[in-house]
What we know:
Strand order of the largest sheet: 8-7-6-9-10-12-11
CATH superfamily of the largest domain: Vaccinia Virus protein VP39
Low-confidence stretches: none
Distance between the termini: 51 Å
Structural class: alpha/beta
Largest sheet: 7 strands, mixed
Number of helices: 9
Radius of gyration: 18 Å
Oligomer: single chain
CATH architecture of the largest domain: 3-Layer(aba) Sandwich
CATH topology of the largest domain: Rossmann fold
Mean pLDDT: 95
Number of strands: 12
Shape: globular
Helix content: 25-40%
Amino acid sequence: MELWFTERQTQDMAITCKVIKTHHVEKSEFQEISLLETKQFGRMLVLDHAIQTTIEDEFIYHEMITHVPLFTHPDPKKVAVIGGGDGGAIREALKHPGIEKAYLVEIDGRVVEVSREYLPEISCALDDERAEVLIEDGIKFIKEHKDEFDVIMVDSTDPVGPAVGLFTGDFYRNIFEALKEDGLFVAQTESPFYNKLLISQVFSEISSVFPITKLYLYSVPTYPSGLWSFTMGSKKYDPLKVPRDRIQKLDTRYYNDQIHYACFSLPEFVKKIIGQE
């Protein structure tokens, strides 16, 4: 008998994957956590029936949420990842030798524990001496830390449940205050095919807080439509004005110096979404 996992990515579209084995299923305090072995994408982390990451394509998301902002800032030392309990963003951030401290702030400790057990390739840097894992509400954490961080990465789930507050103007204003005078942040902002209104609203909110706001794109096969976005808010540094010699070659599979600039070249329909057509 064949078993298949299906994520209904919209009311009218779904992605389905053949499942070889179910490694783990539980209901945590915040959500249902599943860890599946799939034929096409290997081990897959699923939260509330939505694909979060897979062994096969995780490197794309995690490299793009970290290296774009960390090379935009000329000297990042202290960073925070809000969400991202799988640990992938921490792994990539700590490839930068100048990072002295990297906080992972995850509201659901069980996501971290399940990732440590079943996704060691992704969570492998959580035991690095520069990393500190905090199991608490990221919104509260940001409010309580002022003028502390060079870079903040908001590695959130979709804007439902506990992640809703990570897509608000109040949160972006608190991030502005948590950053140092030349700090910047990046947030994942969903699909330009299926989340046009959300992207438009978030871009507008971030633009009202940060003097430099940029949206960039990348492709992840298991995310709705395959085309996904991040939005950067920066107090001082423009990612398109980064000197090319600042972008050092790291152990990456997707990100490089050409991708750094090219990902900000937007299709006309995306420009229209953010009011830059």
